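Hi V.,

You were right to ask for the full record rather than a summary. Here it is.
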Amino acid sequence: MLTLKKGIYSGDVTCAKNINGIIACVTDYNINDYNSSMHCHENAHLSFMIQGGCVEKKRNAFDINPGSIQYYSSGEMHQVVKIAKPSRRVNLELEESFFAQFNLNDTQARIAILKNLEFKFLMIKIYKELLTYDSLSEISIQMLLFQLISQEKYHRQTNKFPLWIS
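Predicted structure:
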């Protein structure tokens, strides 16, 4: 078993930023040069496929295509089995300090991320912020990630549906 340290991925990290408990990076994966060993990460993280595609294995093998979202708990084993074509992902690692800051746990984050209908749109915005990194990018990335997680928490706490549903 291989445990990857903070900010380390099986591809080439092209840009990485550490933002108050969030390690945000863009990672490129090459067809012939990637780490195919079974591994886990020190922190919980989510991965959003921007372009390309791969076959990955957690319990079962599955395809990951552009727009795919994966959430991995800290220590969750997984493996990149095959890179189908050169690929690019946005990876966001969530350190324990992030969970503590927003009074969240791993399960709440997983549910909020995977149920948020705006997730892909918000991840594209985070990707744009990483590429154009300026003086406001850190706070923008924090706000986008908080928006991503807080919507589910808000709806769960209020048990209210949006007005347009009625």
